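Case study: Cyclase family protein.
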Amino acid sequence: MPLHVPEGLESFSEGWIDASRPLHPATPVWPGDRPFELHQSRERSFVLSSFSTTCHVGTHVDAPLHLDETGHGVEAVRLERCVGPAEVVPIPGDSRAVSPEDLPDGWVPSTSKVLFRSDSYPIDAAIEGGFSGLSAELVRWLSDRKVELVGVDTPSVDVFSSIELPAHQALLELGMTWIEGLWLGDAEPGHYLLVALPILLQGAEAAPVRAILKSLYA
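Here is what the predicted structure looks like once written out:
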């Protein structure tokens, strides 16, 4: 049977932006979490590697199990939430919880996936505060407008000093999916195709993702 390649698909492999943070021994982790360690050994004619780290390292998806011991793990995260049209939206880059009033004037979501770019967390900066978070009010505002996935370019959807994690709790309550630790430094505000599938870690409360973006503008 001859192979049929849909028109335009051959060029579809070009122009992708890597929206992931690299994993290496200096990759920052939350205080007290296991840092990333890569172990390599040579066995005859090949190299074998293993690694150990927290599931919340770098760019990752949280699952309900992270906040609710009766919630599901990352194996049950809906894959359609992690693939499809998304919008990169700029937000203030200071260490506070962003509210709907902080969004660009007149902006409303046009996709079910919204990625917030704050530029408040450099790619290899230690996790010690100074980055933006989301308010529970903003999470509810997004949900009311049919947003199902929220991504942030910071280590957490909540600010560093948060104890009660209101943004996490609102996302959980509303059944939304969220990605933390994106790298959006190469993604200008606008519309993209997002692919950000979590590793299939059965029973884990979080998992790293390789997030990539492709502009939807011609």
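For the exam, be able to explain this: Helices lie at 136-144, 166-173.
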